[in-house]
Amino acid sequence: MSRTEQITKLIKSLSNNTPDVEGAAVIDNDGLMIASALAADLDEDSVGAMSAALLGLGERITKELSRGEFELVMIRGSGGFIILTRCGGEAVLACLAGTGAKLGLIFLDLKRAANELSKLLS
Fold first, then answer.
1. Cα 83 → chain centroid
2. What are the backbone dihedrals phi and psi of residue 25, each rounded to the nearest 5 degrees, phi first?
3. DSSP state letter for 18
4. How far apart are CA 76 and CA 83, in angstroms?
5. Per-residue pLDDT for 2 more than 90?
6. How many domains does the chain have?
7. Are strands 21-28 and 72-77 parallel, antiparallel or unpaired?
8. Would you say 25 and 52 are in contact if contact means Cβ atoms under 8 Å apart?
9. What is the C-alpha separation between 19 and 98, in angstroms, rounded?
């Protein structure tokens, strides 16, 4: 199985096995999609570009405000959550979750997935 296939399998597993996760994607630091398990109606190019930009901003804010090591960025809208976390030095894991999501469980699963992705991407 190729590296891309392994990454795709991992994020599809995250989307299918973690309650309330509606989609996930792995995006490189330039905003280019590496692999995705997103709904067909989402523009992957836009998701990639916005995710990379937001991750960079989150990391900068964390550093400049002396908040320790960056862990994640989360946005809550009336329709659910967008959660971004680093998976290695060259990529970000983006996750979409529903409004009633159990965030503790999602954070745990995201951390595990990010660690696995980091190994695959190195």
1. 6
2. -155, 150
3. S
4. 9
5. no
6. 1
7. unpaired
8. no
9. 9
- Global pTM reads 0.92
Closest CA to 93 of 51, 57, 121, 60: 51
Helix (H, G, I), strand (E, B) or coil at 75: strand
Confidence at residue 3, expressed as pLDDT on a 0 to 100 scale: 86
CATH number for the domain harbouring residue 113: 3.30.450.30
Query: Residue with structure tokens 């996930």?
Result: 24
Structure token digits, residue 88:
């290695």
Helix, strand, coil tally for the chain in percent (to 5): 45, 25, 30
The tokens of 39 are what?
Answer: 């709904």
Residue 57 in this model has a pLDDT that exceeds 90? yes
How long a stretch of residues is the chain?
122
Q: Determine the pLDDT at residue 42.
A: 93
